[in-house]
Amino acid sequence: MKTFPALLALLLVAVAAEAVCAAGLIPTPEFAGHPIPTAEHPDPVARLPLRDWLDVAAMAGGIALASYFALRRRTRRGLFLLAVVSLVWLGFWRKGCICPIGAIQNVTLALFDRSYAVPAAAVVMFVLPLLATLFFGRTFCAAVCPLGAVQELAAVRPIRVPVWLDHALGLLAYVYLGAAVLFAATGSAFVICRYDPFVGLFRLSAGLNMLILSGALLVLGMFVGRPYCRYLCPYGAILGWLAHLSRRHVRIPPEECIQCRLCEESCPYGAIREPTVTPPAGKLRRGRRRLVVALGLLPVLIAAGAMLGRRLQAPLASVHPTVQLAERLWLESRGLVEGSTEASEAFRNSGRPPESLYAEARTLSHRIGLAGGWLGAWVGLVFGGKLIHLAIRRRRTGYQPDPARCVACGRCFWYCPGEQARRGWIAGIAQKSAATTNEPLGG
Fold this sequence. Notes:
Elements: H1 4-22, H2 50-73, H3 76-93, H4 100-112, H5 120-136, H6 139-143, H7 146-154, H8 163-185, H9 191-194, H10 199-203, H11 208-223, H12 227-231, H13 234-243, H14 262-266, E1 272-273, H15 281-311, H16 313-317, H17 321-333, H18 342-350, H19 354-391, E2 400-401, H20 411-415, H21 417-423, H22 430-437
Antiparallel strand pairs: 1-2
Helix pairs in contact: 1-8, 1-11, 2-3, 2-5, 3-7, 4-5, 4-8, 5-13, 7-11, 8-13, 8-19, 15-19, 17-19, 21-22
């Protein structure tokens, strides 16, 4: 068990390395037989396929059912069966597309490129879970998202991740979100779709590298609950923010918490927060000092991140196809590389002067460099915000789910004595509990 944090970090670093490839820091690997999704520019007046709207309807119905199962019926069984259906429909049948996670890039590109017409179904897919989260918490993650569903089904022997490691790895999703927005906004790449760990599995056409990535995450997911959702999913990072504003959340006990700690032991996602106690005066003063230091560090981290991100102009710009072509053409013209590529040959045959391509590449590189500064500032804000979050003390009288981390899976329902009494699983007090809650016993 002592080697588990190191093993977990190594496996997640391997996953993150796939995303780093998209940043141009490592040569992009060849995925033989794996179709790489690319940005498309559809006709804005073209008629959308009926199946896309069927997917939208299925997602809306799934979110409604998941919210009902999690908040009203409080049934883990219903959520589990719904996850299986979602995995079959939105995962293997629809091959993971379209999905709200990848739609982050469609919406971003549409905001920064007026010539790009984002499909209406993609916009609805992107917005629908966000609105649902504002009202019901992360019930979309509970049993509707196919990426979450496949990991939920794989979590057969989950163990708890150390708190310090859980907090540290959780920052990766926010960094990934910022990078994905940058590359989409500049028209460089759709990295979320390109390096989706499960889309190749859903399409049954993944190359060896993608199969290794999918397999590693699934094996890791047997012991670490939802590693992609918790540490890499950019859409999950957005849902986590909105969940703090949600009107309703999953409740662990149906009534009063008796602090048996069974829910804390049953949660594989580290989403249960224990009751707080009033600390001694000395500890309170130290906590206030930490908060003051964290607030003072915030602008420093933002400025340092912006400066560092600005210096990453060259590697970030090298992801853009136009910059890549200009670099290749320049190397070929000076004999620094042998042969030519299809792209460079096509450019020469077009009759366009290379100087115009170089000028366009310089403009794009400067623009991406500025975006890199914003990305660095975002990363600094994320790290500073985490320090402030950890320094703030919150009061809790019972065990409560963390809205940002809880995916409403319903595992804690099975273990809560109050829930067992409400359902009649504990003899002698079931009738009293049912009369108090005035609700039918769910199944």
